[in-house]
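Sequence, please.
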């Protein structure tokens, strides 16, 4: 039986979006033939919240004489992904001078970048209220230092055009684009604006950046440093920015800054993680010492035929609660600890993995990279 062009196009889209088990093949051998031509690529990355390699964390590293210390108890998870993403809360400046205990002006010794390199952090957001703690020179030094080590920095630069410039990381023939913005340019609650840090209220720039990135990337991730600190509640500024990002064409929004985890929303079929909380930090409160890592599995499918277009989607997101020990070192939470942590943001213990088709799917069903 010869398929019409319209029917063939319909089958192509069906095959790209659905796994083989969801497609009826018995009535049409041509459908089976098309299915055999589907090329699938899958990658995974882990996203974590705030990483601060200054102050108390830097002192723990110095005492242990081991810059890999903060990452050591989560090493297996980080190594299991194709690459990793985080918000880098502390700038580098070329100086090893540490701020006083309790200071809110951060500076990380250069050697502390070793953990980001070793554990495959290929993209970091520097759109936050601390990137200018060491001045514009510190921002530029941080950006260049990260780039020298093979890490893309997004969300801040020497101009707003650079700050809003997306970054694309390509792995296994999948291009994943990142955009980042912050509620504040310096640590003043968002009062003063400058020309160096992308801001969440600039929705026109957000829309433009997403639309431009859509021409180049297979998948778009938007990162936001926003919200009120030390609360489980999402505020209007977070919700407005995150939903605007999805409406503009983003596939996933990842939030940080509140230092507590916050709820997860599925908006127009796309995930919004309002706050992953802390990952590496020295804060003392129990909720500050609990965070959330997410393992994002991305799938790209394409019919192996001339002029066929690919379809890329977030296949699933695995939730991995963490507990920060020694005010510096996160580890994966136990089953019981995970249940209690996730309950704080209204997620049932069975929802360790979210999937569009079935939010209650188990970890094994939805997060396989096969």
């Amino acid at each position: 039986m010869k398929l019409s062009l319209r029917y063939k196009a319909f089958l192509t889209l069906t095959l790209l979006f659905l796994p083989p088990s969801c497609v009826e093949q018995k009535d049409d051998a041509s459908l089976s033939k098309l299915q055999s031509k589907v090329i699938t690529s899958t990658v995974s990355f882990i996203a974590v919240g705030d990483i601060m390699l200054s102050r108390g964390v830097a002192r723990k590293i110095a005492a242990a004489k081991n810059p890999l210390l903060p990452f050591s108890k989560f090493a297996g998870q980080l190594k299991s992904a194709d690459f990793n993403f985080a918000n880098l809360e502390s700038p580098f400046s070329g100086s090893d001078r540490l701020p006083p205990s309790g200071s809110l002006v951060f500076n990380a010794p250069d050697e502390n970048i070793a953990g980001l390199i070793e554990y495959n952090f290929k993209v970091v957001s520097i759109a936050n209220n601390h990137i200018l703690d060491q001045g514009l020179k510190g921002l530029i030094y941080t950006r260049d230092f990260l780039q020298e080590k093979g890490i893309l920095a997004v969300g801040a630069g020497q101009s707003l055009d650079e700050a809003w410039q997306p970054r694309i990381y390509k792995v296994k023939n999948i291009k994943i684009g990142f955009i980042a913005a912050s509620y504040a340019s310096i640590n003043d609650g968002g009062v003063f604006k400058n020309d160096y840090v992308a801001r969440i209220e600039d929705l026109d720039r957000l829309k433009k950046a997403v639309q431009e990135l859509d021409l180049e990337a297979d998948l778009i991730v938007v990162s936001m440093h926003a919200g009120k600190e030390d609360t489980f509640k999402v505020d209007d500024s977070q919700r407005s920015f995150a939903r605007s990002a999805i409406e503009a064409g983003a596939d996933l929004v990842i939030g940080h800054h509140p230092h507590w985890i916050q709820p997860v929303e599925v908006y127009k079929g796309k995930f919004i993680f309002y706050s992953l909380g802390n990952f590496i930090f020295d804060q003392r409160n129990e909720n500050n010492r609990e965070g959330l890592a997410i393992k994002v599995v991305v799938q790209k499918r394409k019919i192996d035929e001339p002029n066929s277009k690919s379809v890329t989607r977030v296949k699933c997101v695995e939730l991995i609660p963490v507990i920060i020990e020694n005010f510096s070192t996160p580890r994966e939470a136990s089953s019981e600890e995970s249940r209690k942590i996730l309950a704080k943001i209204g997620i049932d213990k069975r929802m360790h993995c979210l999937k569009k088709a079935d939010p209650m799917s188990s970890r094994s069903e939805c997060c396989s990279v096969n």
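The mean pLDDT is 88.
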